[in-house]
Design brief:
- The structure is a single chain.
- The chain is of the alpha/beta class.
- The chain has 2 domains: 152 residues, 3-Layer(aba) Sandwich (Rossmann fold); 123 residues, 3-Layer(aba) Sandwich (Rossmann fold), CATH 3.40.50.
- Helix content is 39%, strand content 15%.
- It has 13 helices and 14 strands.
- A 4-stranded parallel sheet has the order 4-3-7-8. A 4-stranded parallel sheet has the order 12-9-13-14.
- Strand 3, helix 3 and strand 4 form a beta-alpha-beta unit.
- The longest helix is centred in the middle third of the chain and has 22 residues.
Amino acid sequence: MGRHGEKSAVSLLFAVAFLVLALGAPRAAAARFSFRDTPQATKTRVVIDEVGRRVVMPTQVNRIVTLAPNLTETVYALGLGEKLVGDTNFCDTPPAAKLKPHVGDPQDPSLEAIVALRPDLVLATTSINVEETADALARLGIAVYTTAGDTQTVLAMLDSFARMGALMGAGQQGAALAARLRARLDALHARLADVPMAHVLFVVGEDPLITIGQNTFIADALRWAGAESILISTQNWPHLSLEEVVRLQPDYIVFAEGHGDAGPSELADLRATPIWRDLDAVEQGHVVDLNEESIRPSPGLIDAIEQLAREVHPEVFSASGKDEIRNAKFEMREGDSCAR
C-alpha cells in the first residue's frame, strides 16, 4: 500500500518490541566474562531504579552507555553528550549519537562491546530492553539503571528526566529540562481546555493493524494533544480489523512512521486502497504522519504532541499560536545549549 505499507527499521522496532522480546542471549554471553573485566569504582552509592531494582553505582558518573534511542536523546538533552561513550545501532537523535560506538541492537546488545567501553553507568528501559540484559550486566559488576519507559504518563516521563539528570551529576539540568517541557505542556493544555477531544486511530503497525491501549504513555500523550483513541482497550497494543475501524469512523488517522507530514501521494495511496478509502477521515484528508518521537518516551515527544495538536485542532492554532510554540521550542533548545 505505497509508503504506508513499509515501515522503517527503527519505527518497526519500537512498534513491535513492546510485544516480542528476545530472551536468553545475554545469559550465555555473560559466562564469557569475569569481574576482572569490569571497572572498579572506589566510591559507590546505592539507588533504586524505576523498576525497583537495587543498583550499586559510582558516586561520580563519567562514562555512560545507553541501550535505547530515547535514553540517548535524553542524555543529550541533559547536556551530557560528552559523557556518552556508547549507544545502540538505532540511536539517531541527535545526529551526533550516530557517531558514538555502537553496542548492537537494543534487544540483544553485545555484552563484550559494553564491557569494553568501561561504563560507570548503563541506562536501560522497559520499553524495549530485556530484563536478562540488565541481569547479565549486573553479574559482571556493571551498574544498570532501568526506566519504566512503556508504562509512564507524560508527566512521569518528565520526572524521570529529572531523576536521570540527578543520577548522572546533572541535577540542575534535569530539573530545568523537566520544567521547560512542563511549561510547554501547560501552555498547550490551556489552549485546548475548552476544545472537544478529536477521536483518532493511532497506527503503530499496519500488517497486522496495531493501535494503542488506554494505559500506554502514547494514550496519555494523545490526551495532551486534545485527542483520544477510538478504541477502548486494556491491552497495551491491541490488534483490530479495518472493518472495525470503518465502523468506528475516526476523525483522524495518525501514523507513527517518521516520514514527515502526510502529503497528496500518501492520501492517494489510502484513497486507492479498499476499506481505507471507506473512511471519512481519508476522504476528508484527515491523515497525520508523526515522526518517531511519538513512540519514544523522550524529550522530543513534546514536539510530537504539539504537532498532533496543531493537526487535529487547526481551528485553535492561528499563525501567532504557531509562533508561540516555535519560540517555546527555541527557548528550550537554547537552554539545553547553555547546559552543555
